[in-house]
Amino acid sequence: MDISKLDERKARARAWFESLRDDICTALERLEDEAPATLYAGAPGRFVRTPWHRTDPTGQAGGGGVMGMMHGRLFEKVGVHCSTVHGEFAPEFRAQIPGAAEDPAFWASGISLIAHLRNPHIPAVHMNTRFIVTTKAWFGGGSDLTPVLNRRRTQEDADTIAFHAAMKSACDAHATVAPYDKYKKWCDEYFYLPHRKEPRGIGGIFYDHHDSGDWDADFAFTKDVGRAFLKIYPELVRRNFATPWTEADREEQLIRRGRYVEFNLLYDRGTIFGLKTGGNVDSILSSMPPEVKWP
């Protein structure tokens, strides 16, 4: 591909991820303002953005990103991060990345979000979309929902139904390049804890190495995944944030968060990718819940 064309695509992808980040942060801060004071004491939280920079394994400058964190009264801990990094993959990592065995040079840009709510009735959520370039180029990402109360972890739960419908709409709008059934199944299989023999949450969609041959169509799909998340998740938070909870609910939430930690540290590709490419450790591990229990 012509270098100028590829550079234009990189710039468009990066600009979208950063624009989506800004819109999500605004929406989540608005929820902090709206949450009822009777359940959530204190001042509404705000995101704090911290830039970071990296070097690649050769010691050369390799881009960086901005870590956005909010510890609020409604959002106990939420991170919305953007990064754009480049350089060479470490030798032991090259065989795992399409196109990197032939040439270790890479470029990657994306947005990553993880939210843990104070109220156990509000599900935790994850969303990530990215564009990666080696000798090949592809999109990846998705979003999945993790209710923390067992009675909410069913496919018949209203939040589950609404979340799946939102992810399906993002795929169905681009059905020629984004098969919903495939990406839903991929999510179910990916976010599974083999040692527990249980799923992390109720699923969503997951896709990787997505290259249909039509870059504009693939980019349009990836943007709609972000838009679908931005629409549905604030709706789910508003639906539940006035529901009071008990000490037993909080205990169940903290135990369920332990499963989240186990998955992210043992199996998550994004965690491994970030650490293997010299990413910002604080940003990578911001997915860890602020409080958790293994009774």
Straight-line distance between termini: 55 Å
Number of beta strands: 9
How would you write the strand order of the largest sheet? 1-2-3-4-5-6-9
- Quaternary form: single chain
Number of helices: 7
Mean pLDDT across residues: 95
Work out the helicity level: 25-40%
Percentage of residues in strands: 25-35%
Largest sheet: 7 strands, antiparallel
Low-confidence regions: none
Radius of gyration: 19 Å
* Morphology call: globular
Order of helices and strands: HEEEEEEHHEEEHHHH
The class by helix and strand makeup works out as alpha+beta
What does it look like?
There is one protein chain. This protein has 295 residues and is of the alpha+beta class. It is 39% helix and 26% strand. It has 7 helices and 9 strands; from the N terminus they run αββββββααβββαααα. The protein has helices at 3-34, 158-172, 180-190, 215-240, 247-266, 269-276, 281-284; strands at residues 48-55, 61-70, 75-88, 105-117, 124-133, 137-146, 192-193, 198-199, 203-210. α2 (158-172) runs antiparallel to α4. The protein is globular. The model has no long low-confidence stretch (mean pLDDT 95).
Give a brief description.
The protein is built from 7 helices and 9 strands; from the N terminus they run H-E-E-E-E-E-E-H-H-E-E-E-H-H-H-H. It is of the alpha+beta class.
Q: Which descriptors would you attach to this protein?
A:
single chain; 295 residues; alpha+beta; two-stranded antiparallel ribbon; 7 helices; 26% strand; globular
